[in-house]
Amino acid sequence: MNHLLLIWKGLWRKPVRTALTFASMTVAFLLFGLLNGINQGLDHVTERFHLDRLYVMNRISMYHPLILPFAQQVEKIPGVEDVAYWAYFVGYYQRPTVQLPIVAADVPRMFRMYPELKLPRSQLQTMGIVKSGAVISKSLAKRFGWKIGDRVPIKSAIWPRKDGGDIWYFDIVGIYEPAEASPALNDLFFVNLDYFDEARAFGAGQVHLMIVRVNDEKRSGAIAQAIDKLAENSPLQTRTRTENAYAAVQWRQINDLRTVGNFIIGAVLFTLLVVSASTMMQSVRQRFAELAVLMTLGFTPARIAGLILGEALLLSLMAAVAGFGLAALAFPAVAELFGAMRMQPSVFVGGLAIALGIALVSALLPIVRAMRFSLVAALSGR
Fold first, then answer.
1. End of a domain among 172, 205, 236?
2. Which segments cross the bilayer (predicted)?
3. What percentage of the chain has pLDDT greater than the value 70?
């Protein structure tokens, strides 16, 4: 207990300096926790992609159309178990800046294709009855305060109605729970493709993406080639990718951000080391006389080294706990930008290991310095 008291007193010998150092290190650990949490969260999500799901789109781009009869041909390919599809509905709510991720789909097919998305059966059945129905994500409902029974007006500059209007009205009949393994689907606004086709002024029967489930993921590559071969003599040629390959295209910018994040994490760790080492060097240099007194009282060099190391460990671990605690609180809000994901336990374990490493490295030079100073010179104030 006496040693712990000495460590605590030594750490707070200069309270302002210690407080500023603690605050700096806490912010650094906060940034490290958030950035590393996002990186590992994305890695965790990509590991859970379904290799038995293929994504078929127009070879030119995902915004060029495919036709529904092609989906019927794909269903006949040996090894294909199910096919779903959607068309992009580009629209906004109230203001042009509030763009919504709306897709027109055969909704029962979509939720059959993605069983990880949870929607009550009664709400799915209602979607089949109400033509103007919509199923939205829980996060969209929370964002706009929508609830089941609300009628939402959506304006589209791309898809006019046959009656000449550009405002579409959708009735919310269901709210689905997001899935960690499908972040791209966690904020969608599903509407009925049949209703969309009947009402839009042009483009009926066109979709922009087809999702194909195969009965054996080992045959995914061969079936993808078969799908593209089926369309090779068509004016609407296709490009088929597995789910993880499709996500890689969708997340190209996110992957770039991940690279930038790794550089920032490296800078944060370097800053942590410099701040901690600088604080410990100043603390030990200013306390040579006190350390000399302790030696005259019987403290061995090993015990002095233990006190210095204890101060470095205490400061680093306190800052790490505070920083990662704040990161855990802030992470859900930050993670919403990338979809539903949780901070992985490895972030905390790895972060605490790094905190220990920083403490050890930052205490090394002060310990060496303390072991080499002159006892006589220190006691005489030189």
1. 236
2. 20-38, 260-281, 287-305, 312-335, 347-368
3. 76
Residue span of the structural domain in which 362 resides: 2-46+253-379
Output the CA torsion 227→232→237→241 (10° steps).
30
In this structure, what are the phi and psi dihedrals at residue 334, rounded to the nearest 5 degrees?
Answer: -70, -40
Average pLDDT, the chain: 80
Phi, psi of 297 (to 5 degrees): -90, 0
Could you say which of 180, 209, 236 is where a domain stops?
Answer: 236
Contact predicate 138/175, CB 8 Å = yes
Residue type, 296: T
pLDDT tier, 280 (very low <50, low <70, confident <90, very high otherwise): confident
| Nearest of 279, 296, 272 to residue 355 by alpha carbon | 272
Amino acid sitting at position 224: A
Q: Across residues 145-169, what is the average pLDDT?
A: 91
Q: Kindly report, residue by residue over 70-127, the tens digit of the pLDDT.
A: 998 999 999 999 999 999 988 888 888 888 889 999 999 999 998 888 899 999 999 9
Q: How many domains does the chain divide into?
A: 2
Verify that 144 and 214 share a domain, yes or no.
yes
Structural contact between residues 366 and 284, judged by C-beta atoms closer than 8 angstroms: yes
The reply to whether 55 falls in a domain is no
pLDDT band at 324 (very low <50, low <70, confident <90, very high): confident
Round to whole Å and give the CA distance between 59 and 232. Answer: 10
Q: What are phi and psi of 95, to 5 degrees?
A: -130, 150
Name the residue type at position 344.
Answer: Q
Of 260 and 356, which is predicted with more confidence?
356
Cα-Cα end-to-end distance for the chain: 32
What local confidence, expressed as pLDDT, does residue 85 receive?
93
Provide the 10 A C-beta neighbour count for residue 289. Answer: 14
CA nearest neighbour of 279 among 26, 30, 28, 18: 18
SS3 labels along 345-369: HHHHHHHHHHHHHHHHHHHHHHHHH
Helix (H, G, I), strand (E, B) or coil at 265: helix
For residues 72 and 173, membership in a common domain is answered with yes
The answer on 213 and 70 residing in a single domain is yes
- How far apart CA 173 and CA 171 sit, in angstroms, is 6
